[in-house]
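Predict the 3D structure for this chain.
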Amino acid sequence: QVQLVESGGGLVQPGGSLRLSCAASGLTFSSYAMGWFRQAPGKVREFVTAISAGGGFTNYAGSVVGRFTVTRDNAKKTVLLQMNSLKPEDTAVYYCAAGRTAQAMGASQYDYWGQGTQVTVSS
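Done. Predicted structure below.
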């Protein structure tokens, strides 16, 4: 049974930082690209970033370029999302997902999903 478990969400002030973690089990982690998506209330789930299976290729949404960094540790079966210079519009539930390619930016292109972790950016 595949499980993706996110952690690290919380409340942070604008301009602050958070680091999200996603721990995977039940799949050959090193064979999957890993993505992060987010969904704000009343909005569709949107692509944030993805990293290739080997970690050599990353893909970012324009809204987070220069502020967010995705990395992975295949030995530990984890993927991290470092979020800096956070803005109120970054407030959302953040999901990690496993898929075939880090070039994929559509939610339907990912096979497995975590349950999400809430990130709230507010003063």
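The longest strand covers residues 18-25.
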